[in-house]
Amino acid sequence: MLTEECGFRHYMASVGIEVIETDLGERIQQLDNEDSSHVVVPAVHKLRTDVAEVFAKTIGTDSANSDVHYLAEAQREATRPLILAADAGMTGCNFAVAETGTFVVCTNEGNADLSANVPKLHIASIGIEKIIPRLEHLAVFVRLLSRSALGSPVTQYTSHFRGPRVGGETHIVLVDNGRSERLGMEEFWTSLKCIRCGACMNTCPVYRRSGGLSYGATYSGPIGLIIDPTFNQRKYSNLPFASTLNGSCSNVCRVKINIHEQIYAWRRVLVERHATPLAKRIEMKAAGELLSRPAAYRAAIAAADMALAHLPRFIIYNGLNAWGRHREVPHPPKQTFHSWYQVNRGGKQ
Amino acid sequence: MSSRDDILASVRANLPRADRPLPAVPLFGNTTPPSLLAAFKDSLHRMGGMFLDPPTSGDPLASVRAKIASAKVVCSTVPEIAGNRDITGVAAPHDLADVDFGIVRASFGVAETGSVLLSDVDLHVNAVAYLAQHLIVLLDPEDIVVNLHHAYRRPEFRDRHYASFHTVPSATADIEGVLIHGAQGVRSLSVLPIARELGSTTH
Questions:
Q1: Is B175–A24 a contact, with Cβ atoms under 8 angstroms apart?
Q2: Are A104 and A143 in contact (CB under 8 A)?
Q3: Sign of the CA dihedral A288, A292, A296, A297?
Q4: Is A158 on the interface with B (CB under 8 A)?
Q5: Sheet holding B101-105, edge to edge
Q6: pLDDT at site A194
Q7: What is the pTM of this model?
Q8: How far is B150 from chain A (nearest CA, A)?
Q9: Bridging pattern class, strands B115-119 and B162-166
């Protein structure tokens, strides 16, 4: 995740070094030239038949065989020689302990431990927010992570690195990339507490319908909405608006980040800083005027319903109407709720 | 200034002024199960690992011998059982790529999760625990702690360069959520409870 955030793989390719993802889900996404769509399950949006198609094209499996065991085994067999031949293995880090200089990597597949323990050189990239004070605190976080991510008591492998192995080298790269600046943002610094368990994504009604790729950013789902703008306010200015503010994410967050409140706060900040596109600012201003005057609002709704019912297609589906670009606009109701209410319940208590 | 100084200066400048003392974390071990070994066995089964019940009489390692009987390459790092690949003669981790069975002893086990801790001292070459197709772990029943809070008080986390909790074999559910054991690491993990041989204590 951290290396994706920094565009690491693309950069390494440009200097002639091939980076191979070893996690099954990450590898599927890499072979399909797609970004990861979930922090814990990178290829969650793909069906087994999609994976069979990707593997048939790239690692030579039988395209007609979409048995999950067959596909996972094929990736194991295809990846192992690459790990054995690699000059360096890279891992991320889930937690780092200041007291002992230990960094901890949690996986289920064992791919991180192969990458760290087979090549001579091990490089770990660590976001500075992963650092916790003491070993006694680590127990809390290790217990929390897998329970919140997958509902299992602990990850299959929880590995603690405190120094290089005999004959090997270990290098640690501590990455800031905007984190220390975020620490100074009073409303948003608590997003640094995120342990990347993905619970907010799994519960989010928007994420569950749209999938992670639609966010167009490394971090998707509710947590993505509040940390992506810290990397690029203009590029990700639309993300905090893609929420119903229902608060489910804050309810499930194990490290108690007030995610939906931060989403709301980002809207204000982005508008104040004029990071939102001009068209959106004009629309919002017009909506504000209209919504503050009930009579005008009712007249506009009735007029819009009438227009939708009678205007020719080429006007409704013009290039400016993003809502009609990939889908049919719903049929307009015969009357507005307000006029229906006046007729059926008007004057009654 | 180096990037390191830049980051430290920026952290100092932006640190939230929260007046909260560092919390002391309790051990949460008030509900110690009557038998740590039985609790460990339950947790291991729940996670999908294999617990080799020790025989009531005869060769305590009979179940291990039966498992490795038809294996081609066995690499043992324990004095209790001999393999046919000497770990002390392994020059590079790659030389372990063809190992069928690895046999190692755990520093200790955790009853709460069914995990065993394997450190660089136990493994000699760390990769044996990942490149082997199957792993057999010997665990002294005296070496089981109740939960992870107790585990992190152990000396291994301060004096070993590498220490890893293994909880059942490698697994993935990355395709349609279907659970598969034997992802990239070992395909099976079995734990045999057996006391350390006198004089072989590593801590």
A1: yes
A2: no
A3: positive
A4: yes
A5: B50-51, B188-193, B134-139, B101-105, B74-76
A6: 96
A7: 0.88
A8: 9
A9: antiparallel
Tell me the mean pLDDT in the region A288-304.
86
Q: Residue ranges of the alpha helices (H) in B32-170?
A: 36-47, 62-68, 120-123, 128-131, 148-151, 156-159
Distance of alpha carbon A346 from alpha carbon A106, whole angstroms? 62
Domain boundary among A220, A252, A278: A278
Q: Which residues make beta-bridge pairs with B181?
A: B171
Contacts of B175 in chain A (CB under 8 A): 24-25, 28, 43, 46, 48, 51, 68, 71-72
Structure confidence by residue, pLDDT tens digits, A248-291: 999 999 999 999 999 999 999 988 887 777 877 888 888 888 88
| CATH number of the domain to which B56 belongs | 3.40.50.10420
Residue B175: which domain range? 35-193
Cβ distance A68 to B178 less than 8 Å, yes or no, reads yes
- Residue at which a domain ends, from A112, A143, A177: A177
Q: Which residue on chain B is closest to A97 by alpha carbon?
A: B157
| Overall number of domains in chain A | 3
Q: Cα dihedral sign for A291, A293, A298, A304?
A: negative
Q: Between residues 248 and 307 of chain A, which touch chain B (CB distance below 8 Å)? A: none
Choose the closest CB to B166 out of A137, A157, A182. A157
The DSSP line for A26-76 is HHHHHHTT---SSSS-TTTT--HHHHHHHHHHHT---TT---HHHHHHHHH
Any domain includes A272: yes
Backbone angles phi and psi of A270, in degrees to 5: -65, -40
Q: Which domain holds residue A251?
A: 183-278
Q: In what order do the strands lie in the sheet with B162-166?
A: A131-132, A95-97, A102-107, A157-161, B162-166, B115-119, B108-110, B144-145
* Interface with chain A: mutation pick from B175, B179, B181, highest number of A CBs within 10 Å: B175
CB-CB neighbors (< 8 A) of B167 in chain A: 153-158
Residues 97-126, chain A, touching B (beta carbon < 8 A): 100, 102, 108-111, 113-114, 117-118
Angle between helices A294-310 and A337-345 (to 10 degrees): 110
Residues A173 and A191 in one domain: no
Say if B90 is an interface residue toward chain A (CB within 8 Å). no
Confirm or reject contact between B133 and chain A (CB < 8 A): no
Q: Do B148 and A109 touch (CB under 8 A)?
A: no
pLDDT of A90-138, one tens digit each?
Answer: 999 999 999 999 999 999 999 999 999 999 999 999 999 999 999 999 9
- Beta-carbon contacts of A17 under 8 Å, excluding residues fewer than 6 positions away, are none
Give phi and psi for B172, each to the nearest 5: -145, 150
